[in-house]
TrEMBL record, chains A, B:
Gene Ontology molecular functions: DNA-binding transcription factor activity; transcription cis-regulatory region binding
Key words, A-Z: DNA-binding, Transcription, Transcription regulation
InterPro entries reported in the protein's UniProt record: DNA-bd_HTH_TetR-type_CS (IPR023772), Homeodomain-like_sf (IPR009057), HTH-type_TetR-like_transc_reg (IPR050109), HTH_TetR (IPR001647), MftR_C (IPR041347)
UniProt domain HTH tetR-type: residue ranges: 10-70
Protein name, as recorded: Putative TetR family transcriptional regulator
Keyword match DNA-binding: yes
The keyword Transcription is assigned to this record: yes
Pfam families: TetR_C_14 (PF17754), TetR_N (PF00440)
Coiled-coil zones: none
DNA-binding residue intervals: 33-52
Length: 207, 207
């Protein structure tokens, strides 16, 4: 049946990923086998093994590198930039790698959201990204605690921009959305008077 | 042996918690039994059962309520306050409940950090807090995506302030540290020019 197929298919990886995402969305991630994925893609298990370790890998291939890639981008940002600017430069840089991938990214997110197991893996992944970014900011001279805070905020900005982009890919590329989201957050926070207690009942006078 | 003890000990809960934390720190959370905890505290298993469901509960009692408590504080903040100000009011409000608990909080954090199982539980807990806060901000009229972003940032501010406070409790109460941390973040973000690409190589001109 597969004898007439070319040995090397330049689109095999994409076809496998698309087939897997379609099946995960139809039947739920837990209920799909690698055999079903290869059959849907019209490829062999050997092709599958060339690109992915297992079915989880179809979903997360590439994202295991995200901590290192993002940390490197933050380290390599303009040496004179203050911490948040370096972080933003890194996020914008990495966002560029997602260009044209909005539909696949949206599908991947939908699959993850439907599975508690994958949501848990997603949280672990974002924690690893946050730690790597905090390391990079410390290497640039930020104090430990500031680096950890900015890293968490940077990851929140990136995740929010990613959601906005997959919801409405035509409103601009991910890199532009990252910058817009960060600007919106800065504006919202900048409007607050931090010196005054937000309300008398919440902050009794200190002796 | 326990016949001479009073039936009701007003400090039993604190004694059990302190004994448990000391044992967790000495032997690792996984290696400590409820019997060891009650023996160290000089109390019975029945006393233990009055306050805690199991040994995990000793560590997390109270924090299961955190999502609801924080969401309620955000909902009840001054109705005219913009989203981030309402969020900050809620965080400051809840921080007040931690007053005087810095040493216990520091011990609890050290136990959690030493155990991958507890770290995972901690991440799940913070995700639940984030979701509850995002719900509360939506109820106040914030758009879904902005509510989710601010909730993540608020939780990051709270966690950072908590770390700073347990590291150095004498530098001020948690509620003051929350406000300082938020102000520092706003200042760091406000210094960035979001309209200009951070560096030419990171943002090619758009058509």
């Amino acid at each position: 049946m597969l004898a007439s197929m070319p040995r090397w298919d330049p689109h095999a990886e994409d076809r496998l990923r698309e087939a897997a995402l379609a099946l995960f969305l139809e039947h739920g991630y837990e209920n799909v086998t690698v055999t079903q994925i290869t059959e849907r893609a019209g490829l062999t298990r050997r092709s599958f093994s060339r690109y992915f370790a297992d079915k989880r890998d179809v979903l997360f291939a590439g994202s295991d590198e995200l901590p290192d890639v993002l940390a490197r981008a933050v380290r390599h940002a303009d040496g004179a930039a203050p911490p948040f600017e370096a972080l933003l430069a890194g996020l914008v840089d990495v966002a560029g790698a997602f260009e044209g991938q909005a539909p696949l990214t949206a599908q991947r997110q939908a699959v993850v959201e439907a599975s508690p197991e994958l949501q848990e893996r997603g949280r672990t992944k974002f924690a690893a990204v946050t730690d790597a970014v905090a390391d990079a900011l410390r290497d640039r001279g930020a104090p430990v605690s500031e680096a950890a805070l900015l890293a968490q905020v940077g990851v929140a900005v990136f995740r929010t921009a990613l959601d906005r982009w997959t919801d409405d890919p035509d409103a601009g590329e991910l890199s532009a959305r990252v910058r817009e989201t960060a600007a919106e957050l800065a504006a919202g926070m900048g409007a607050v008077d931090f010196t005054a207690p937000p309300s008398p009942s919440h902050a009794p006078p200190r002796p």
